[in-house]
Design a protein that fits this description.
alpha/beta; Rossmann fold
Length: 249
Amino acid sequence: MDMGLSGRVAIITGGGGAIGRSIARLLIDEGASVALLDINTEAAEQAKQALLADSPTATIFARACDITDKASVAEATAATETALGPVDILINNAGFSRDMYMLKMQDEDWDVVHDTVLKGTFHCCRAVLPGMMERKWGRIVNMSSMAHLGNKGQTNYSSAKAGLLGLTNALAREAGAFNITVNAVAPGLIATPRLRARKDFDKLEARSLALTPLPRLGLTEDVAKAVLFFVSSMGDFISAQCMNVTGGR
């Protein structure tokens, strides 16, 4: 099936991470060119080389980018368009948690999570939207989390991910007239290398398996498939939606 992505150009923030790499792999398989933007230059380059090892003819651009810095985003977007062409697809995947109960949380812990998840998405959307509007085509997917429902010890992360859903819904209404869809993906517990490295991984896994109708942890590929659906021709008439990738939890 032709998913309509051949020749498209996609930016993936957090492109050096496990989920970003899985998203890139599926987009590459459908004929898209991808730009891996990451605050960690080495991670972005390693992801690029790993993807090229699997797909030697793929067109991949890797670059450092601090999405909390508007100028850095503008520079990375311009460099992407010079290397690959106009940006058709934006995957706002960068983000992280910094967990702490509210009364023990430092202001910096709140600010850095919100600046990355919300302000970073804001900067990236504003960088690519003018071109998408001019060409009357665009696909934006924001990476939320089931934490948007609220987890103790995650007031910063939960509120940022909940805010991202509001941003998604509002922007979908602003951009729809230009044939631009804006959607979100909300993963549950995904077995990334970072998660597996946590000291409490066994406890998290056991709890998830006990509560999830599909009795396994989510894989990065599961998240990537949801993203692929939204940006492909299958999602042409779908906007302002959030897809939960949780195994039914």
